[in-house]
Write a structure and sequence with these properties.
Elements (H helix, E strand, L loop, with lengths): L2 H24 L6 H25 L6 H30 L1 H21 L4 H12 L6 H26 L8
């Protein structure tokens, strides 16, 4: 199996297992920023482990291009697996929890809008628009995936810049 595909599946499985574990403990924790930071930490660790392993397999050298491609493929595979899990979890297995989490997200957003000093009319208008969206549905999950892939590209650029190592031109 291709190195990047293998690590993409590993990272995706780790992220899905972690998310499912948190969900089973208390599904409301899914919206806790600390959970997102922990998943981010897992992601960064796997990208570096995979990158340094690939560099070692290539005789201790790895071009920026190959490091970037590998990191991004790993990230993208994992992201697709997580989105697939989310769509199934919130639309097939527990749609009632998705509705509850969406209400909680709306309440949190209203508090943010109030802290910004938005008028009641503006808040009501924005809240109505947000209520009309199924944040856990396929459409919004795919929108989130697109944003996540852009973020993954940035992370992959940083990882690639760190793990690359040029072969000496002259021996």
């Amino acid at each position: 199996m291709n190195h990047s595909v293998r690590y993409g599946l590993i990272l995706g499985a780790l992220n899905v297992a972690f998310t499912a574990g948190v969900f089973l403990i208390d599904y409301k924790l899914i919206q806790n920023p600390l959970i997102g930071f922990l998943i981010f930490g897992i992601t960064i660790a796997v990208l570096f482990i995979a990158g340094f392993e690939l560099r070692k397999k290539n005789g201790g050298y790895l071009t920026f291009k190959n490091a970037l491609a590998s990191s991004f493929v790993i990230y993208a595979i994992a992201a697709v697996l997580v989105v697939t899990y989310n769509v199934l979890q919130y639309n097939v297995f527990t749609p009632e929890i998705a509705q509850e989490l969406q209400k909680e997200a709306l309440n949190q957003q209203v508090a943010v809008w109030e802290s910004f000093g938005m008028s009641d009319e503006q808040i009501d208008e924005n809240a109505a628009a947000m209520e009309d969206r199924n944040l856990f549905g396929l459409t919004w999950q795919l929108v989130g995936l697109a944003g996540n892939l852009f973020f993954g590209l940035i992370i992959s650029l940083v990882v690639a810049a760190i793990i690359k190592k040029k072969e000496p031109e002259f021996d």
